[in-house]
Design goal:
mainly alpha; 5 helices; 75% helix
Length: 99
């Protein structure tokens, strides 16, 4: 059961990390520091010690949360705007960060 908790916690952090990076008006060094803090901060290492299944599940959850956000954005864009919505660099709803 602890492994599922670590996985879910990682998924939430991954989801929030992508959300923050996507909607931040400027991507600065502080944004990268937030991601590094989420991935390997002292609090995380205290909760999920390295080399344990808890830390492994946290890492998997982090990746799942991050990439599921991207996948949902791509699917929603394809359903509403079609392929044009993915390639239009001027569209603010484009699921890819274009600066």
């Amino acid at each position: 059961m602890l492994e599922w908790g670590a996985f879910c916690f990682g998924a939430v952090i991954g989801w929030f990390t992508y959300f923050t990076m996507r909607y931040s008006p400027t991507h600065a060094l502080s944004d990268i520091a937030v991601v590094i803090g989420a991935v390997g901060g002292a609090a995380i290492l205290a909760l999920f010690p390295t080399g344990t299944s808890l830390f492994g599940n946290y890492g998997v959850g982090l990746a799942v949360g991050f990439f599921s956000y991207v996948a949902i954005l791509i699917i929603a864009t394809l359903r509403t705007a079609g392929f044009k919505g993915l390639v239009d660099q001027q569209d603010k709803k484009n699921p890819f960060m274009n600066g």
